[in-house]
Amino acid sequence: MWTTIPAQAASDANSADLLNFSPMGATRVQAVFDEPELSSDGGTLLIREAAELNGVIDMMVSRILDERSRQHVKHSIKELLSQRVTQICHGYEDTNDCDTLNKDTAFKMAVGRHPDAEDLASQPTMTRLENSIGRRDLLRLFNGFVEHFLDSYEKAPEIICIDMDPTPNRIYGAQQLGLFNSHYDEHCLMPFHVYDGITGRLIATVVRPGKTPAKEEILGLLRRIVRPIRKRFPKTTIVFRADSHHAKPEVIDWLEDNDVRYVIGLSTNNILKKNMADIVEKAAAIQKRDWTTFRRFHSFHYAAGTWRHERRVIARVEATTWGVDTRFVVTDLSAGAKYLYETVYCGRARAELMIKEHKCFLKSSRTSCHTAEANQFRLFVHSAAYVVMHGLRETVLRGTELASATFDSIRLRLLKTAARVEAGKTFVRFHMPASSPAAAVFVKTAAVSRAARGT
Fold first, then answer.
1. What's the predicted TM-score (pTM) here?
2. Residue 442's domain spans which residues?
3. What does the pLDDT read at residue 290?
4. Which member of 98, 172, 238, 303 has the lowest number of beta carbons within 10 Å of its beta carbon?
């Protein structure tokens, strides 16, 4: 519905603030930024409810030791984390964005402040928080994320599939742990990302140097993850999936000694090639004869010189017009070779999508602090944003067309909803477009929230 602005009201606007666009005939088209109660991020309501339901921010608060002087504190740790996580979910990943959004009424509501209350934290306050977190806090936070992952199950699952993968984060300064990686041809960090490959839930993220992981790093992380899983769910089958960088003899030995099943990529060598020579030759001949892609799977037992015994190896041979490609996987599972490779091992590609959402859509690659501790805390904050967004998709969006949408699509279609905030003494009301396609999700979220509160 069009609203005609009275001439007097139009003349009251500061002409210096008016933005003039291409006219429509004789009609002027202008814009002015003068609506303090209007926000482009009405979806903060959804993020606020999702964060309250899964409790990830409360978990982080409980594990951070706040040593600030009480009489000088204007922003609690929970408010700071809520503000930062909500901004990340909405696409504002830089702490500099705090200076622009700390007056936004929608973000004030997201952290539990009344629209008329004091402004939220500025960039310097948020940066001080990042640099105040010590190693003991970080260790407690790591354990907290693992415990929070386990708490997400209502009952013991049959299988937990640990998908572990390092991913490069480019650096452009003198960040601690930053190294030049010749494979990526750049200076980077390579943090570990660990997810449950079945549910897509985050287990942990760890900042580490920009190089191939060593056996000590892999084993140290596995111990800290497997131990609490075994304690909470002793009968749950644990499966470990990873690429060939993780196929260290000591790692495989540890997995077997601790009853963790595994499917791990295996680097090619001359002995493995010799075992597959006949099949490779046959695959190339069939492809040349039929001029079509030919794929074959094979299973055999093999023992590297550093292994303590023979292990089962799955081979996949694929002949195309580009040549013959052979890949190997080592496993202790007994299913068929085709199923183990195509379904089980290749299923870890889903973890790449999880990393993409964490790293690209939530911008967790912004590890631009100087110290490793500050970058680890920043990675944890982005991980909390992942948990909130994944929880929103897993609960409220289940059964909708956005149930399998990326975080980017969820942000554009749900979170970026214009809202005019009306605040009274006993209420705060968000007025949103009557034609908004997000209305049904807001209705469902409100119902889920009422059910959780028992009202």
1. 0.91
2. 38-132+387-453
3. 86
4. 172
Residue with tokens 């912004």: 366
Among candidates 110, 105, 90, which has minimal Cα distance to 38?
105
Label residue 15 by pLDDT band (50, 70, 90): low
Structure tokens at 390: 């994944």
For the chain, the average pLDDT equals 92
Q: Which residue has the higher pLDDT, 189 or 9?
A: 189
> CB count, 10 Å around CB of 227?
12
Q: How far apart are CA 224 and CA 245, in angstroms?
A: 19
Is 58 among the domain residues? yes
Question: What's the angle, vertex CA 33, arms to CA 31 and CA 37, rounded to 5?
Answer: 130
Please tell me the total count of domains within the chain: 1
Answer whether residue 87 is part of any domain: yes
**Residues sharing a CB contact under 8 Å with residue 340, sequence separation 6 or more, in sequence order:** 263, 314, 329, 331, 333
DSSP result, 329-367: EEE---S-HHIIIIIIIGGGHHHHHHHHIIIIIS-TT--
Instruction: Measure the CA–CA gap between 206 and 184, rounded to whole angstroms.
Output: 20
Rg (CA), the chain: 26
Residues with Cβ within 8 Å of 88's Cβ and at least 6 positions away in sequence, in order, are: 362, 363, 381, 382, 385
Q: Measured in whole angstroms, how far is the alpha carbon of residue 219 from the centre of its chain?
A: 23
Q: Is residue 314 part of a domain?
A: no
